[in-house]
Design goal:
Blueprint lengths: L6 E7 L8 E7 L4 E8 L10 E4 L10 E6 L7 E2 L3 H12 L5 E4 L6 E2 L2 E5 L18 E6 L16 H4 L14
Antiparallel strand pairs: 1-3, 1-4, 2-3, 2-10, 5-9, 5-10, 6-8, 7-9
């Protein structure tokens, strides 16, 4: 999915919301319903708990997938410059790529989680999600209609110059 922006809104919700660009129901690893995930390509924040995700992660025609969803506990804010976040990014770059990997953010300087998407044989590798060492991961089975595939990260950005984008982001807007 592409658009004028390099990010879109993303949230874990009770039910697939009306008006979302893409949404899919999710189940926990035991097969129990666990709500839905939704994405919105729009400027206005659709929900209080929505976070920014790399827009390339979202594909309304995407196949079912298994994900590792890492979210901080309520009230916890961790800067992207934190050594744990930087090490998780290095570890993610050193490993074979997943179908999707994006950090989640609410502002330009805080790590607000990550989503890692796997299919096929890579699903077993979700147990090694480096972001799950920062905050606990929720492993979910996602129905079709939300996640696509995106290019492997080219390397970490430097937040002071690219922090308005969820990592990994491989380019910066040109000055007009």
């Amino acid at each position: 999915m592409s658009g004028a922006s390099s990010w879109c809104w993303f949230a874990h919700v009770e039910e697939p919301p009306d008006g979302a660009t893409a949404a899919a129901r999710v189940r926990d690893r035991d097969g129990h319903p666990a709500g839905a995930l939704a994405a919105w390509v729009q400027r206005a924040k659709p929900l209080r708990d929505a976070r920014r995700v790399d827009v390339r992660a979202i594909d309304p025609a995407g196949a079912p997938a298994t994900i590792s969803l890492v979210l901080p506990p309520p009230g916890v804010r961790l800067p992207f410059d934190d050594l744990a976040v930087q090490q998780a990014r290095r570890d993610a770059l050193a490993a074979p790529p997943f179908d999707v990997l994006s950090t989640l953010l609410r502002d330009a300087s805080h790590f607000e989680g990550a989503v890692t998407v796997a299919r096929g044989a890579n699903v077993r590798r979700l147990a090694e999600d480096p972001f799950a060492r920062i905050f606990p991961a929720l492993v979910l089975e996602v129905e079709a209609g939300l996640f696509g595939r995106m290019p492997a990260p080219a390397g970490p950005t430097i937040e002071r110059y690219g922090s308005a984008q969820p990592w990994p982001w491989d380019r910066f807007p040109t000055a007009a």
